[in-house]
Write a structure and sequence with these properties.
homodimer; 25 helices; Transcription Regulator spoIIAA; mainly alpha; elongated; 8 strands; two-stranded antiparallel ribbon; 6-stranded mixed β-sheet; 578 residues
Chain lengths: 578, 578
């Protein structure tokens, strides 16, 4: 009973062994992650088109809920770049940025995502995430990174621009280029350059100065905090607000509010599909981070329970002024490297963010939006990896096609169309490939009982006996191809009287394939050719015996291909018997 | 050159060897088929919501065009029941029955179907028809038969009723039941009973009377002609038109008109999807008839060329006052049984129908619609076969689900939704099944070099060595499952130090699966476990060598599993070497 409960509430498992040592480690990790999360959360909220505080709210309750329901010891849940972009795209279609309706729709989206993830988790359907092939995910993340970085350029330039795809965005940027605000541009470019340097140049410097590589990495991750502090001070001191530098402004001080998603049926209908896509993309991102970190400590995470953890986190976000969240890559790695031992580190991080939202927000009044944009740009450009195009091109054209289509459609028509077309194309290409089952004509290797491909080995064959080894399970998409192949061989003019299908690699024969085999048997009989089977696996045979095929088979079922050969390789005898 | 042309114009092939004997046989077949086709064509046109003559027009040009481009020697192309129903459903959504717009939309639908089939044929994409699994086709045909029979009941009862699905139809029939026209009901029931008797009881009688079974069958197929003649005479003689019996009335006398489909963009957009579905359903019906008949004479038909033949036939129908057509089951079998040798039989049938439309139509003025309805009902009820539910239930639950869903959705929401949901469900179920690849843990059969499933055979294993035989190609849907399985086994607490994947049955590793294997390799290395591969097929190895996997592999690639066993089964040695 307790074990069963612990399966759904992993907190019951690790909570029992929690000690002072783990507490100290978790606490240190929490402080470091909190410092990193404040600017990141604000930035992602702006990316999602929401007020800055929504980013902090979206980190508090979700982190706690994930700590209770999730299985990863190191995953840090909250707003992430790609999901923020998808939120902006989905909510932007039903409400105007900056309105109360926009924020309410973001809550609805979080609730729908959460509910969908929970349902998948309870139904133990974590496997649906497998329908996103790696090339599609890589293409989507890369294209999203480019879209996000482009969308932030307006903040760096201090102009207003808009657009739902790359072409619109770039066009809009060029159109407003004459309105560039110089102080904003200086801050934006300086912050971007600084953050790039922190990422690439600071760490080696710190290591040279004698710090351990882990510590150096953690300090480098805190770079955005320095950028935030310096640019805020400069903007305040020089009065740059009046020079046209856009600032974050008033951020409400206080606890996350209790909020209610908008359940208007129209809104729910419009957001349902985006919610599904956001859930799946978020789940895939989260699970790959969690698995990577868990493997380092030889731990396991349970994908189905992860769905429940992420579902609870999103529902939490929906009722506390947040928006869709998931396990983020950067924050989770920092959490792990800083020594987090249990999900309690997440709970302490939540407390840190709570304190920040209670006391820190007035200090953010003069924070330039350009600094936040710089944070985002530097973060997402590390996601952009066009080498996937080269890699897939070298490995498999079908995979290349899926990546290229995903990138182009995402850039040209937006994130939802991009993911959808990538998934459909992957499934389509897979079915196309599996429509041609691998079938080899085999012959006897002289002096043995083994049968090998006639095209690769010198083997014995008989002109009246066609033996085909079927190397794949037979199902509706590929069965007819096998039938066509056999019939083509038989009508080619050779005097074939017996066809043997060697079924050693067939794990399943679905009903369509069964009917195709029955049809093949009938058609071959009409031509005076007998059909035999050999080496049928046990479970497949059990099923076939429940059908007409075995009873009506014009030939026999042989236990081994060698039995078939011994019985059938001698022509005149059986021709006489007919 | 000639051969290449002959591939696209099969007429060049059989036309060269055409002689007097073949001419005589084709002529006899043509006369018999013509007699059968006249009432059938009229009836199906009414089912499609078109004037009766459209059915005859739809048989003339298409038959000739198919004779030129098609590959089947016996297939008879023209209106068929299911395609007529689908036409009524598709065109009914864009125009009112009986208007000029309705007829024009039917032409557009025929043109779009034809164009789609042609394009598929030229791109040699006949394999797309494989995406309709047999259970889906069976379910769809059965549900369509029920829908068609129900839709004809109003003609038998002499009332007006409507509806797009079974519930609406039955409701509408019950509502108008008080308006039953007695003379119509008598004619309808008598004709139906007579046709059922002809189908079931006449043939044995004729055989008893000394006729050959083939001849008896052909005479029985001509039953509808007798029903048409008798009920027309009775209606005329008793003046039943004035008693409320609905008759066919004026049917224009003359050659098929030259018509132009309506290419309004709106209309084309609305009809595009139905045209695709009609094409594919029609193609599947046609090809299965053609293959069945071809096999009887050990001939082959070329599915891609069939697409071209059917495409040409439909485009022909679009310009000569017809509507979508395909190769029909009943007419093709009669044609074959009557001795048709070449597609010229079809051309002669077209001439017969031409004569009928020139001279016969005035005789059809008093033909009761109830008789045509009886013809349809008797014909389609033979398509209804609910036993597919029982058969699939016994064989495979997934296939049962696909049939049941197709039948229910077709009856409840119409033909297009039925086919679409059946196809999507089949693909979904297939992917669901393939998401769990067949993987067996294997051990060495003592005294041999063979490795077998540990659950089925008594085999040798080692606690530190996990050997998994992968029985399926690895691709994006199932690769993660393999990874999960391996990681679960390794983290279970056993002291596993080496994992061997035996790849003898893996025909392909797509890019996602490659990355999953690389990830698995990294994660196992993080845990101090080495990953090895064995028995990798040549083409798979060629590709893997182009990737990082082989270079970064923590273990080795073994040519045979037995090599792996010899190298790895001895624990202390290799642990010491590390």
């Amino acid at each position: 009973m307790f074990d069963r409960l612990a399966r759904y509430l992993p907190v019951l498992d690790w909570g029992r062994h929690y000690d002072r040592n783990a507490f100290a480690n978790d606490m240190v990790a929490a402080v470091i992650v909190t410092i990193m999360l404040v600017p990141q959360s604000l930035a992602y909220a702006l990316l999602a088109g929401l007020p800055a505080e929504a980013g902090i709210y979206a980190s508090i309750a979700p982190i706690v809920l994930y700590a209770i329901f999730g299985t990863s010891r190191a995953l840090a849940v909250g707003p992430v770049a790609v999901v923020s972009l998808m939120t902006a795209s989905a909510v932007g279609q039903v409400a105007q940025t900056g309105t109360a309706g926009y924020a309410a729709a973001a809550l609805t989206l979080a609730f729908l995502s959460g509910a969908f993830l929970l349902v998948l988790g309870i139904m133990r359907m974590g496997w649906v995430a497998n329908f996103l092939s790696h090339p599609v995910i890589a293409g989507f993340i890369t294209a999203s990174g480019i879209l996000i970085a482009t969308s932030q350029l307006k903040h760096i330039l201090g102009i207003s621009a808009s657009g739902h795809n790359l072409i619109e965005m770039v066009g809009s940027l060029l159109e407003h280029l004459n309105q560039v605000n110089l102080p904003t541009l200086v801050i934006g470019v300086a912050a971007t350059a600084f953050l790039f340097w922190v990422r690439k140049g600071l760490k080696p410097l710190l290591i040279e100065a004698g710090l351990g590589p882990r510590m150096a990495d953690i300090i480098a991750k805190a770079g955005p905090v320095a950028a935030v502090a310096v640019t805020t001070l400069v903007t305040w001191a020089l009065g740059l607000k009046d020079a046209g530098v856009k600032i974050v402004g008033e951020v409400p001080q206080g606890l996350p509010p209790l909020t209610m998603p908008d359940f208007a049926p129209d809104l729910v209908a419009q957001l349902a599909l985006p919610a599904v896509l956001i859930s799946i993309i978020g789940f895939v991102e989260s699970i790959s981070v969690a698995q990577t970190l868990a493997a380092k400590k030889r731990q396991r995470i349970d994908p189905d329970q992860e769905l429940i953890g992420l579902g609870a986190a999103n529902i939490g976000a929906a009722f506390t002024g947040g928006y869709p969240v998931t396990g983020g890559f950067a924050r989770s790695v920092v959490n792990f490297d800083a020594g987090a031992e249990t999900p309690a580190a997440g709970a302490f991080t939540a407390m840190g963010l709570l304190l920040a939202s209670l006391f820190l927000t007035p200090l953010l009044y003069f924070l330039p939006k350009a600094t936040l944009a710089a944070t985002i740009i530097v973060a997402v450009l590390s996601l952009v990896d066009l080498s996937i195009l080269r890699k897939t091109w070298g490995y498999s054209r079908a995979d290349f096609l899926a990546v290229a289509a995903t990138i182009l459609v995402t850039l040209g028509a937006g994130v939802e169309a991009g993911v959808a077309s990538g998934v459909l194309l992957s499934i389509g290409l897979h079915l196309y490939k599996s429509a041609r089952p691998h079938v080899a004509e085999v012959g006897l290797v002289p002096g043995t009982q083994h049968f090998r491909n006639v095209q690769r080995h010198r083997v014995e064959t008989r002109p009246h006996l066609l033996t085909l080894r079927v190397d794949e399970s037979l199902f509706f998409v590929n069965a007819r191809f096998l039938e066509d192949m056999v019939l083509e061989r038989v009508t080619e003019g050779c005097p074939i009287t017996d066809v043997v299908l060697m079924m050693s690699a067939v794990n399943e024969v679905d009903y369509s394939a069964l009917e195709t085999l029955e049809e093949l048997n009938r058609r071959l009989r009409d031509m005076g050719v007998r059909l035999h089977l050999s080496e049928v696996k046990g479970p497949v045979m059990d099923r076939l015996e429940r059908s007409h095929l075995i009873r009506d088979l014009s030939g026999q079922v042989f236990l081994s291909q060698y039995d078939a050969w011994r019985e059938l390789s001698d022509t005149p005898k059986h021709r006489a018997a007919e």
